[in-house]
Design brief:
It is built from 5 helices and 14 strands. It is α+β, with helices and mostly antiparallel strands. It has a domain at 143-248: Beta Barrel (Thrombin, subunit H). The strands form 2 sheets. It has a 6-stranded antiparallel beta barrel. A hairpin with a 2-residue loop joins β2 and β3 (70-73). Residues 279-298 have a biased composition (Basic residues). GO terms for molecular function: serine-type endopeptidase activity. It is an enzyme of class 3 (hydrolase).
Length: 298
């Protein structure tokens, strides 16, 4: 009864999912996974939707919460901040009255070995946190399990920082529905024969004020993360399709990065390593050729 009363104080506006405690390092993903919009509590889009702030406290990228210490965003978006992570944080967008803080410091960033800045191929990054993001509404999102096809309708989130010429960015996140288009149509729109195999294209809303294209911001289908805002489009010209990284195509990099971190093969930042003894490196025999990652430290 006491627990129920305490949870009720955290639930001021509507019924939904309120967790009894903060996320811990060993919290299993399946116990804290987003159940869809029907499970949301209060005026938010789910506790998995995050934003990355640079060392000055300004918006840097949108992101999605994947595991206790892991956040998914766009490599192109986070790359310029890779050498200035001091003070950079990840902040949640769903709050309850029980939450005292809803952010976590960034520790390191992992990029695919074949990623090239301002190119579309493998435009994804896994951000490692020093501690889990706290909050009674904070939760994880599943990676995409469906094949992305033309005419599918998906939802993209953002704040409007890519669209400052048209409208002032909002302090709270917004969302809009976009329609996936074929690679052939995408090539015609961009007048280019080259579209990365890890990219998907979506038709932008005609009204620039409805367009959302903040780097790293999530693109979801149902209850799954199927894309992140990539590189190459702008809301000021909505005739050009939005470019997104296809999470299903880069899923292997994400999961192998997670496995490497959990196995102790990817160490924390130099500042943390000086304070703690490095664990012995484990030898893992992969069943198939692994996806190599770059390790960037502070």
């Amino acid at each position: 009864l006491l627990v129920s009363c305490l949870l009720w104080t955290c639930l001021p506006q509507s019924q939904g999912t309120v967790y009894p405690r903060d996320i811990l390092l060993k919290t299993p993903k399946f116990r804290r996974v987003w159940g869809g919009v029907q499970s949301n509590t209060g005026p938010n889009f789910g506790g998995w939707l995050l934003r990355i702030l640079n060392g000055d406290g300004n918006f840097a990228c949108g992101a999605a919460y994947y595991a206790p210490l892991l956040v998914i965003t766009s490599a192109n978006c986070i790359y310029p901040y890779r050498n200035s992570l001091e003070g950079a944080t990840v902040e949640g967008t769903a709050f309850s009255e029980c939450d005292r803080e809803n952010y976590a410091d960034i520790d390191t960033i992992q990029f695919p070995e074949k990623f090239i800045y301002q190119k579309l191929y493998m435009d994804v990054a896994v951000v490692r946190l020093r501690d889990p993001v706290r909050g009674r509404l904070t939760e994880f999102i599943r990676l995409c399990s469906v094949k992305v096809q033309p005419k599918m309708q998906m939802v993209v989130f953002g704040w409007g920082f890519d669209n400052t010429e048209v409208e002032i960015p909002s302090s709270d996140p917004r969302n809009v529905t976009v329609t996936i288009i074929s690679i052939k149509e995408c090539r015609q729109k961009f007048k280019s024969p080259k579209i990365a195999s890890t990219s998907i294209c979506a038709r932008q809303p005609k009204n620039p004020k409805q367009c959302l294209y903040d780097g790293g911001s999530p693109l979801i289908y149902g209850r799954e993360l199927c894309g992140v805002v990539s590189f190459g489009s702008h809301c000021i010209d909505t005739s050009r399709p939005g470019m997104y990284t296809n999470i299903r195509r880069v899923k292997r990099f994400i999961t192998e990065t997670e496995e490497s971190i959990n196995a102790g093969d990817v160490f924390r930042s130099t500042k943390v390593v000086k304070e703690t003894k490095k664990p012995p490196k484990k030898t893992i025999k992969p069943k198939s050729k692994p996806v190599k990652i770059q390790r960037l430290l502070r």
